[in-house]
Amino acid sequence: MKNPCIANDVGIGQADNLKHKQLHISLVALILVVAITSSVLYLHFSWNKYRDIASAEAVMLAESLESLLHPEHIAVLSGNEEDLQKQEYTMLKLSLMRLVKTTNPIRFAYLMGERNGNIVILMDSESSDSPEYSPPGQLYSEANQTTWEPFRSGNTVLSKPITDRWGTWISVIVPIKNPSNGSVIAVLGIDYPASQWNLRIWKQMIPDIIIVLCLGLLVYALYHSWNQSTTLKNLGKKLAYDEALYHSIFTQAPIGIAIVNDKSFVTQSEFGHTSINIMFEKILGWTSQELERKKWTEITFAEDLQADLEKFEQFKNGEINGYSLEKRFIKPDGSVVWTDMVVSPLLGESGSVHLCLLEDISKRKETEKALIESERSKSVLLSNLPGLAYRCKYDSNWTMLFVSEGCLELTGYAPESLLHNREISFNDIISPEYRILLDKEWKRILPQRLPFKYEYEITTAQGERKWVLEMGEGVYDEQGSVEALEGIVLDISDRKKFEDNLRYNNEHDAWTGLHNRRFLENLLKNDAAIPFSEKRALISINLNAMYLLSLRYGFHYSQALIQKIANELRVYCNENCMLFSSYEYRFVFYVTAYEDKEDLMCFCEKIENVLESLLSSESITTGLGIVEIDDENKQDIEMLLKNLLIASEKAIHAEDQTIRTCFFNEEMSSQIAREQVITYELSRIASGENIERLFLQYQPILDVPSNRICGFEALARLNCDDFGLVSPLEFIPIAEKSRLIVPLGEIIIRKALEFLKAIQNNGHYGISVSINISGIQLLQVDFVKNLLQQIEETNVNPSNIGLELTESIFTSNYEEINATLAKLKSCGMKIAIDDFGTGYSSLARERELNANCLKIDKFFIDKLLFLSDEEAITGDIISMAHKLGHCVIAEGVEDERQLNYLKHHGCDKIQGYLIGKPLSERDALEIIEK
Ligand code: C2E
Ligand code: CA
Ligand code: CA
Predict the structure, then answer these.
(1) pLDDT tens, position by position, 425-446
(2) Is the CB of 749 inside a 6 Å radius of any atom of ligand 1?
(3) I need a surface site. Which of 471, 804, 832, 882 has the fewest CB within 10 A?
(4) Which residue, by CA, sits nearest to atom 35 of ligand 1?
(5) pLDDT tens digits, 332-381
(6) Distant-in-sequence contacts of 837-841, Cβ < 8 A, 24+ apart
(7) How many angstroms separate the alpha carbon of residue 703 from the centre of ligand 3?
(8) Which ligand is nearest to the CA of 714?
């Protein structure tokens, strides 16, 4: 693109030039006009001057001639033929003839006189035989004003050029007067030929003309020299411009320019110009001053020096007219710069001086290097690819245009045999069942320019099937149509094997080899998607209690048993009955195409029998849950499995131990929902919200010997938004299951201790408060520490605190729990074993147990109403407990008969509705006062 600024400058320059030229022309024209005008004026003036002189001379000559003629002779002439005879005529004629002959340039001389009012010729200077001869008396018909003038005025007249029959003349006509009276008797006419007259003036003008010419020459010379100087000035300007142009190009050129003398750099030309430009310094990193002291051979990279020197030698010897070379120079810091160097003669300069042009090509070289590196790494990549890389046509054969070396190992065919389908096409290698699928996939992704990724099998030259993964993409031309396909085909046989393993592990239970829950879920999901007319159901076998076996006999024992059970159950599998190992200690049958519920129950009975025979000696409870699948519930697999679990749990906990199979029903799920609401309420209380909804009631305990209230049992109560008052029999197990019992237990302990504090504050120091403690609570590491801290904070007497623990917690961690109890006991607290008689513990073990009291369960107290004193063992329990050093509390006493029996058998304390129902804190405090 043209630089608009420069274009403008050029425009201005041209306009200036034009103006200058116009001025120049006008000046020259003015000078010319002045010179010509003055020359013409001058010549005109001279001409007039010489003409006047000639006229004066002519008049003088004529007048002096006239004075030579004798008027008396003239007077004799009559103006006719007779005059010819007269002597005077002859004398006068001779005089005229002599005059004409001797006086140049007079051509004619004649005498004219007035006769009868006309002017007639009296005589002329011509001989009578001349054709111009006029005989005397001839009428001068050409007479005009001028001819008449001397006759009338008596003055000499010089005529203007007059043309007559003899030519063009200038005549001087002098009157010849009668000396006596002064009258004009005749006139003497002398004719000068006009040409000769003028010629004579011209001749006189020669010096003037020469002067004018000289002046003209002078003017021309002046003009010329002025013109020369202007041209010179313009040339000077042009030179300055050229110089500026050269200088800016030199300094600002994006290539390095230097003048070099043989092997040295020239820093300044003989005219003082800088000979190394800024770019040259910039590329090399050396300043001009430094370069002046260096030879280019010194800063040339060693490896490139030889090539440069050879070329330079040829150049110096005139063998080549210049050369270019990619070479490296060493910078001052020792680094290297790649340049493209052109060495050429300095035009117009002879000798050893030459021009050196440099272009920095380091970047290009770097790119080239990177390209080479990338080519190299590409080739490394290709040769180490676990498969082949390809470029192929987008046709039905996948005609190969390029195939990498790995082809041989992958396919058993050499790359060349695949190129252009020479021996075999790639399509032939693809296992037939994948060919259409592959084509379809390419057709799908190419229009969207998506990457291609597909796993399929090929058949190698050896006939072996191999899994491969192909990844590729389309190569498109400018019009967007597919030019070729490029990509890689990798051997993934190993991965496939691994994947198969992984899938197997993913879908199977490692221990039993049965399909696992994930597989079951997928199967149910798939079955849910297809319409199903036959009945379908899931049967869960809940062997959860087997964990107790693990506890008792170790993991391997229970797992071996599980394997055994799995093998026995497998026998029942057929096309309509699949067995899964859904969780640890849980199996599921997926039964299809059964008749009705009866049918299912029948099947379950068989299973129960199997379990019975295997587990009879293990004393663990199992349960079978059944969920029937219908159109309404088939989609929610999560829900199906959850319901299955609920049903099987229900079956385990069924009170009637004979029925161990339970169909899932909606009541169960509402039970679950209720449990969820309660759990939520409890968790809010545990986190400090609605804390008043958990409160305590206190049931009095009677000391039999003194017949006085000796203590209270603190009983927890929950007030729930949705269900009102919820029994601890319901919410305590829920709190235990969710482990919320830990924070809730702390709240309960705190409230109970505050109640005890209130009793003590009222001055009753002998009354104690018993708190129910769950096993989970007791097993907390810092349970004792927290409890002691609370006791300290409320400042109550520890010996007035009772802790009630159910028997069941001693089934596990006996040692640990007993040690904790010892600590608590040593602090003065009283430990009571709650619900005694219902659990696993035996009286024998109570000996080592760090307990103070046994609390006989209501079950044994109730018995007292139906059994005779002899039949009841309650009294034996009391005496045994006493022998072991424990005091005995009877709970759930509602009847006088019970009370009497207990008193009779020495029971220490009584608790029950007969004594008092659980009371609010205020009522309890009131009762003490009474
Ligand atoms: P438990 O410790 O055996 O408590 C005695 C239960 O029997 C109480 O039921 C009490 O109200 C009831 N009871 C007392 N005398 C009679 C009677 O003469 N006739 C009848 N029919 N029942 C009587 P409650 O309050 O429903 O407590 C049930 C169970 O909840 C308790 O049994 C205890 O195991 C548990 N529990 C209550 N409060 C707590 C607590 O704060 N923490 C823990 N961990 N468990 C608690
Ligand atoms: Ca209790
Ligand atoms: Ca109890």
Answers:
(1) 999 999 999 999 999 999 999 9
(2) no
(3) 471
(4) 728
(5) 999 999 999 999 988 766 667 889 999 999 999 999 999 999 989 888 88
(6) 837/807, 837/877, 838/807, 839/806, 839/807, 839/808, 839/810, 839/811, 840/807, 840/808, 840/810, 840/811, 841/807, 841/810, 841/811
(7) 17
(8) 1
